[in-house]
Amino acid sequence: MTETGEPEIDLLSHYARSLGIEVSGFEDGVPVLCVSGIDAIEGRPGHFHGGATSGLMETAAYALLRLALHERGEQAQLKPINITVQFLAAAKKEPLFAKARITKLGRRSANVTVEAWQEERDRPRASAVMNVMIARSEPEAT
Amino acid sequence: MEKEAPHRDPANVFDPEKAAPFLFAGGHPGWLGLTYLGHGEDWTEIRLPWREELMGDDVRRVIASGPIFSMLDMGGGIAIWTRARRFVPIATLDMRVDYQRPAGERADVIARCECYRTTRSAAFVRGIAHDGDPDDPVATMAAVYMTIGDFNPAGAKND
Q1: Known CDD domains for this protein (chain A) (predicted)?
Q2: B129 CB burial (10 A radius; 0-12, 13-18, 19+)
Q3: All domains of chain A, ordered by start, with CATH?
């Protein structure tokens, strides 16, 4: 961790950065991600496209997994297995936040849940469950 | 402007080919760069062109899972309007995507979505994403959409 509390690894993919997703802060070491109400996220006029909401939640899950593996000193490549998204309420075209929780971090896969919210945190706009494949780089045998 | 676009007029028969330029003009679909490929009675096919900004990591030059999810969500909606033969406001309720393999390097990804059932207030969709061979999918999806309104208002024919 640096003095600002930011980890020294890259938490965002090309895709996440070009969509305008940012790390807005950390809560107990867990990254909170945010995307503002820009045109690139709009679906129905004035609202988020479900795909943009899902993209933010997926990015929050990968960011947390990358961080957790980094903190354990492990090198691994993450690959998506699946995602199930519940769209609970229309997200308005204004900042949307997402935070993930690791339910299981196993040898070969992880299970992660994510929630996305706007001004009222206890009324999430969407939630997701994801399974992610963890391809660890094995130390070479000598 | 969006609210005056002809495909949104419930009196018009929904034609995905004619609606595509409006649906893909801006917002998230425009940012993705989606284009129309084809359709049948209850299915549609759309394309997500490869570009660097959509990459998921630095290791493999392939489209990330997020844009594929977005395209399948969009393709599902268009399949519903195609089957209903008119535009009905809808919202995705629940959607699942299983990623079977990464897309090819620098490959475009194609979504083929089929609306196999509609009820008064819900529509059911299944679909695949592939990068050239529909028999070797990149991903499969299943989703339920809810109508904001009614598929079968008084006077409309039942299906």
Answers
A1: PaaI_thioesterase (cd03443)
A2: buried
A3: 14-136 (3.10.129.10)
